[in-house]
Task: structure prediction
Amino acid sequence: MKKISKRRFLLFSILFPFIFFKPSWGHPKKPNLLVVWKKKRVLALYRNSKMLKAYRIRLGFSPKGQKEKEGDGKTPEGKYYITHKNPKSKFYLSLGINFPNQDDKKRALRRGLDPGSDIFIHGLGQKNVILHYLFDWTEGCIAVTNKEIEEIYDLVEPGTIIYIYA
Result:
C-alpha cells in the first residue's frame, strides 16, 4: 500500500469539498435579488446588498398601480421570484415571474376578477428599439433591450427573488 504524505493528505482534505460539492454561497457574480422601481423605470441586480448592475426598463402600457386583472396593462407590485428561463420567447429571451402569487389571487377573487398571468422580464423581440425608449408598451411585463436580456438571462437563476415597487 502506498503511503500518502501529510502535505498531500492536508491538500486533499481542504480541496475535497470544493471538488465534489457545489459551494452553498453561489457564484459571486450572480445576483441573488432583483429590484424593480416602476416609477424610476429601473431594474437592479443585487448580490448580498451590493448592486451589480441596473437597467432602464419599460413596463405595461398603463403602469401606475397594482395589476388587478388580465388586460389592464399594469405591471404587478410585490414580492415574487423567477420561475424559469424561456430561450424561445417571442420577445427574444425571457424570465418567468410567479405572478399571480397567493396575495394576487386572493385580491382578484375578492373582486371577482381574473388576475392574469404570464408576467416576464423579456427583451424586445422584433420591436423597435427607439419606441422602447419612448413608451411603456408591454401587457404588464418588464422589458429591456435584447442585448440587456442576454446579460440578465445569463446571470439570473430560477428561484431568485424579485421585488417590484411602485
